[in-house]
Specification:
The complex is a heterodimer of chains A (about 170) and B (about 325). By secondary structure, chain A is mainly alpha-helical. Helix content of chain A is about 75%, strand content about 0%. The chains are: A mainly alpha (about 170), B mainly alpha (about 325). Chains A and B meet through helix 2 and helix 3 of A and helix 4, helix 5 and helix 6 of B.
């Protein structure tokens, strides 16, 4: 394996992403967890950038690092943010979860190595934002509209549920 | 990697710091004149060293971290707030040559990276362990998120006209007509939303002295406080540049006055926007918190959506269509 800049960048970004996830689980205060999660989201945007998916990377930062993280921080601050999680997990519990996680990892690796990655190299210039827009609004316009209607229904449903509790 | 890649950003940092130093002095002078005062005139000739003295005072102040504050987050928050402010400058084309990254989705990059600053403000307010700071942080986050939506929606008209998110191409498209004319509604929405994003008067509710003491940075002193302030003024620089690029034709010369170099045109238009920000600050009263949200969702957002619709319709009309 030759040491290119891309490889170094990928290595740093994946360590950042995994590190953020590990810290998110290990922190005891909820707000630290939310920040670690935001950090993971941000590192994943960097990996998208390495894959030449600029639009997806920027949207990842805008939606996940920006909006979703702030929404979580807001939710935490408006509720019981001074609480600390207590480590009251039984010892056999962690052994069991370790085995489960290891098995899942094994299955994923097995699938990855079994699946042949088909397809030839293409010119990356073709896959810009314009191409994405054409695909979404011409080829896949009906699934796209269905997804937006679904989100709208979820939004209206959430408002109705919140209104009910007031009475 | 050539030398300019290393020296360029450092040079830009010093230019931005110089801008911030004199923008603060200029702001105080302008507000002074508008309010029939002289403004700072004691330190140096014409008050030229006033900001330098102020910054020096901040740097030699005692560095206080409140005993009950969340210490690590308290230290981290100014960094999270400042870094995006400088990072957004990377995609802004100052002239045809002077641009650090010709990013294909530059406009969205600006919007995305600038939203990270909100996390810094929110965390700073929370980590201070102070009720006023927390309220200020929450207000700031709510305000900046609400106004980010009309801000992004107002530039969709431009994106539709140009057919690109690249800032360089957006400037190229304005060689004949600046977008301020065909996209005037979009420009108005963008300007108002950008003032609100900058947390400046009349939208400076996050630091409303009369009700919140000073907002999210109540507990901050010295260097860390200076960083929050610096982030705010670097955003003034960035937002004025972005407004110039999007609506005032960037470095393009009006009326064919091309003998004046493009960078001078850019600086002139940029200074006009900066002056406008100070002018608004000196003349407008602060708006109320309930009016703030209603204004964003009931006035600015429908206007921005209407602008998108009008642009789409006008694009199809034969004679007017060539301006869109």
């Amino acid at each position: 394996m030759n040491l290119t800049g891309e490889f170094v960048a990928f290595f740093i970004l994946s360590v950042m992403a995994i590190g953020g996830a590990v810290f998110m689980i290990n922190f005891t205060r909820v707000i630290h967890m939310a920040l670690a999660l935001a950090f993971t989201f941000f590192s994943i945007a960097g990996i998208y950038l390495l894959l030449n998916a600029e639009f997806v990377a920027v949207i990842q930062v805008l939606i996940y690092t920006g909006a979703v993280s702030i929404l979580m921080l807001f939710g935490i601050m408006l509720t019981k943010h001074r609480d600390e999680e207590k480590g009251s997990i039984a010892p056999w519990h962690s052994v069991l979860s370790f085995i489960a996680a290891g098995a899942f990892f094994g299955i994923v690796m097995w699938i990855i190595y079994r699946t042949p990655i088909a397809g030839e190299q293409v010119d990356l210039k073709q896959f810009g934002v314009a191409r994405l827009g054409e695909a979404v609004f011409k080829q896949y316009v009906i699934p796209f509209e269905l997804a937006s209607v679904l989100l709208l229904v979820a939004l209206v449903g959430a408002v109705i549920l919140a209104k009910k509790e007031e009475r | 990697m050539n030398l300019m890649m290393v020296v360029g950003p450092v040079l830009l940092l010093f230019i931005v710091l110089g801008f911030v130093t004199y923008a603060i002095l200029f702001e105080r002078k302008v507000i002074g004149w508008i309010q029939n005062r002289i403004g700072p005139n004691r330190v140096g000739p014409w008050g030229l060293l006033q900001t330098v003295a102020d910054v020096f005072k901040l740097l030699i102040k005692e560095d206080i971290i409140p005993a009950k504050a969340d210490e690590s987050l308290f230290r981290l928050a100014p960094v999270i707030a400042f870094v995006p402010a400088f990072a957004v400058l990377a995609v802004i084309p100052f002239t045809e040559k002077i641009q650090f990254a010709d990013f294909a989705v530059g406009l969205l990059y600006y919007m995305a990276i600038s939203s990270i600053t909100i996390i810094g403000i929110l965390v700073g307010g929370w980590a201070s362990n102070n009720k006023y700071a927390l309220l200020g942080g929450m207000r700031s986050a709510a305000q900046m998120i609400s106004y980010e939506i009309p801000l992004v929606m107002s530039v969709v008209g431009i994106i539709m006209s140009v057919g690109s998110l690249n800032l360089h191409e957006i400037v190229e498209a304005q060689q004949k007509v600046w977008f301020i004319f065909p996209q005037f509604v979009g420009f108005a929405v963008f300007l108002i939303a950008s003032i609100s994003e900058l947390n400046r008067t009349p939208f400076d509710l996050p630091e409303a002295e009369s009700e919140l003491v000073a907002g999210y940075h109540v507990e901050y002193t010295g260097f860390r406080f200076a960083f929050f302030m610096l982030a705010e003024y670097v955003y003034v620089f960035a937002m004025a540049s972005l407004t110039t690029v999007l609506y005032l034709g960037g470095w393009n010369a009006p009326f064919g006055l091309t003998f004046i170099p493009p960078i001078v045109w850019f600086i002139l238009k940029f200074s006009l926007i900066v002056f406008f920000l100070f002018w608004v600050r000196a003349t407008m009263p602060r708006i109320r918190v309930d009016q703030l949200m209603q204004f964003a969702w009931k006035v600015l957002l429908p206007l921005a959506l209407a602008n998108i619709f009008i642009t789409a319709v006008f694009k199809e009309i034969p004679v007017i269509g060539k301006f869109y």
